[in-house]
């Protein structure tokens, strides 16, 4: 059965410093993995997705994530945080045999001036 | 700019009243999902449809919730009677298989429901 674990409920960084949001997954097969972002009082927006092509995936707004099968991880990174990056981020795995998405519990990113 | 639309954006009602939330999926998308988001439970999948047929509604309390797709451009989620514990943000999402076996869901802005 697929599942996803976001290791940090909150991450706080200073503007201009790197961002690392951690995610580990469990899947019987080669998974499809996603990162979604939710700004306050907004819907969810897709940041990036991994679907068994390149292991380093680039997304919008300078974010990227690396699929590491040996570590069952799909961590989200950004070299330099911006104030507008403050939001909640969800790591998501797609169930193999259906269209259902399994959401992690979310990581709230705080960016200090 | 294709996007999922949801109405109403905000709804305040009293306990016992019927609530209907509507969703217009992106044209051409053949799957539609209803999610509920609360502080305590996070994002929960309530139900989803493929080609207008319900595929899974195991996440939905059957006694008071119902979800339908009367046509390809409209999905509805109804609560009757509503209770304070139903207060949450309800999201609709639509999706379709993309190229190279990819798939993603596109989310609407949500309906914030408050049941007093």
What do you see in this structure?
The complex is a heterodimer of chains A (113) and B (116). Chain A is mostly beta strands. In chain A, 0% of the residues lie in helices and 54% in strands. Chain A is globular and about 45 Å long. Chain B has 116 residues and is mainly beta. In chain B, the strands form 2 sheets. In chain B, strands 2, 4, 5, 6, 9, 10 and 11 form a 7-stranded mixed beta sheet that branches. Chain B has a 4-stranded antiparallel beta sheet with strand order 1-3-8-7, with no helix packed on it. The radius of gyration of chain B is 14 Å and the shape is globular. The mean pLDDT of chain B is 91. The A-B interface holds A 32, 34, 36, 42-46, 49, 51-53, 90, 94, 98-101, 103, 105-106 and B 4, 31, 33, 42-43, 45, 48, 50, 55-56, 91, 93, 95, 100-110.
Which sheet architecture does the biggest sheet of chain A show? 6 strands, mixed
Mean pLDDT of chain A: 91
So how many helices of chain B?
0
Helix content of chain A: under 10%
Low-confidence stretches of chain A: none
The general outline of chain A is globular
How confident overall, as mean pLDDT of chain B? 91
State the shape of chain B.
globular
As a percent range, the share of strand residues of chain B is: over 45%
Multimerization state: heterodimer
Strand tally of chain A: 12
Class by helix and strand content of chain B?
mainly beta
Q: Termini of chain A, distance in Å?
A: 41 Å
- What's the alpha carbon Rg of chain A, rounded to whole Å? 13 Å
Helix content of chain B: under 10%
Total strand segments of chain B: 11
